[in-house]
C-alpha cells in the first residue's frame, strides 16, 4: 500500500531515535493535536503531518530563541466586518435624521389656475411632485433595509472571525525560519508550552534527568555484564 507524505511523517514521529545523530538522544516530547515536537540534547524537531510543506523541521538548540503562543486572526474578514458595520450605522443614521419626503418642494399653484391650460399644468406638476415623493420614500426604505443588511453582514463577519481564530506555537529560530505548529487550548492549559521552553533551555531538568537515566542504565548494564562474566 502506497503511503502518503503525511503518513510517513506521522510514522517518523514515532521513530525519532532513528533520526538522532551519534550521541544524540531524546530529552522531551510534546504530542499536540496536529503536531509533535521533540527536543533532543542537540536539536528541536517538529513533525506536522497535516500541515503544508515542510512537514518536518529541525533546528539546533543554540539557535532556538523564545517559545510563545500567537493567535491568528483573519484580517480580511475582520476588515470587511468593520466596513460593513460603518456602512450600516451610517445608513441607519441617515434615514433616522429625517424623512426624505420632506425634501420635496411645495409649489403653490393656486394663482396659476386662471391661466389657459392651467388645469393640465397643475395636474402634471402635482403628478411629478407625487412621483418624486414616492421615489424618495422608496429610496429611504431601501437605504434603511440596506443598513440593516450591512449590520447583519458585519455581525456574521465578526462571528466567523471569532470562531476561526486559531492559535499556533511559535519557536523562534535565529538565522532561519521560525518553527510554527498548531496548538489547542487543552495543551496550553496542560503546560505544554512551559515544559517545552524548559526542555530547550541549557541545563534543563529533562536533560539532566535523561542523562542520569542513561548513566544509571550504563552502570546497570556494566554490572550485568560483570555478573554474567
Describe the structure concisely for a colleague:
The chain has 229 residues and is of the alpha+beta class. 50% of the residues lie in helices and 18% in strands. The strands form two sheets. A four-stranded antiparallel beta sheet has the order 1-2-3-4, sandwiched between helices.
Task: Provide tags for this entry.
7 strands; 3-stranded antiparallel beta sheet; disordered C terminus; 229 residues; rod-shaped; 4-stranded antiparallel beta sheet
Question: Can you walk me through this structure?
Answer:
The chain has 229 residues and is of the alpha+beta class. The protein has two domains: 5-73 and 165-213, PH-domain like (Roll); 76-156. 50% of the residues lie in helices and 18% in strands. It is built from six helices and seven strands. It has helices spanning 5-12, 75-96, 118-164, 185-189, 192-200, 205-228, and strands spanning 26-31, 36-40, 43-47, 56-60, 64-72, 166-173, 179-182. The strands form two sheets. Strands 1-2-3-4 form a four-stranded antiparallel β-sheet, with helices on both faces. Strands 5-6-7 form a three-stranded antiparallel β-sheet, covered by helices on one side. Strand 2 and strand 3 (43-47) form a beta hairpin. Helix 2 (75-96) runs antiparallel to helix 3. The longest helix has 47 residues, at 118-164. It is rod-shaped, with a radius of gyration of 36 Å. The chain starts with a helix and ends with a helix. Residues 205-209 and 211-229 have low confidence and may be disordered. Keywords: Membrane, Transmembrane, Transmembrane helix. Residues 203-229 are annotated as: Disordered.
